[in-house]
Write a structure and sequence with these properties.
The protein is an all-alpha fold. The chain has helices at residues 7-30, 37-62, 70-86, 91-116, 120-139, 149-156, 164-182, 184-201, 206-232, 243-253, 265-284, 290-316. Helices cover 77% and strands 0% of the residues.
Length: 317
Amino acid sequence: MIKPMRERDISSQLILLLLLLLVGAYLSWQSPYFMTLSNLRNVLDSVSIRIILALGMTFVIATGGIDLSAGSIVSLSAVVMGLLMTDGCSTPQVIMLGLAAATLLGVVNGLMIHLTGINAFIITLGTYSAYRGLALILTSGLPIYNFPASFKFWGSGNINSLNPPIIIMVVLVIAAAILLRRSKWGQYALALGGNGEALRRLGVKVGFYRVSVYAFAGLMAGLVGLIVTARVGTAEPNAGLSMELDAITAVIMGGTLLTGGKASVGGTVIACLLLALIRNGLTLLSVSSYYQQFIIGTLLLIAVIIAEIREKNKVRL
């Protein structure tokens, strides 16, 4: 049985939610354009891909691992889809094979981490460069154009006034929350981060669960690659650059321990929304985009420090 969420976890999410409301209130006061329907829809549309990528990262970090190659998988899966499209494959074939390729890249990450015993940071730092380098090699550094409308629909179409990415995001958030709290797979992912050795001694095939978590993260990155490519109508070998840092920041801010063993899908979603409002607010207030990376990096640093201090205090208690 999954233990109920502790009061400290709930309070952390309430603090994040309060910050989200305060930022929203401040932006509403500062800009008359913030609360318009078109702007709020743009915020949801832009944050959808970040939430999807962060969902995969939530499970990875819950196991005590990390995936620095997530952004590179976004770009390589986009390139694979672009190449398949130029070879005459249909839209369903392109999507299925592109997502399969992204999942396979995640499997490669998980297998190397499990079989070598090398820290996930080192392995995925290597695949970060390898996957993006392969995307550049396959395209000679040039974007791939000419996607049909049936493919572009997944990035900029409309379903009852909502873009498909928003609907995909909502479905995945619900599914991820259920998987994390109500499935054996989610329980074992958390247990891997808490005490993987104890799990192994119980006879659980920890290798399978570790690899499957990285496969899931790869699939989420592939979906982001699909959405980004369909939205702009171009497969860019440099797509997804630095997206993994945004995902890691949101996951840690949302209450998932960097050391694993505890995770929160809800916290991840709230943190992604908070970061999205900050980006949107900087744009509406005509603040230079150069400040965005500085702010995201600072928030990541603060989130890590707070998480570490809380864990040390918990151990002392």
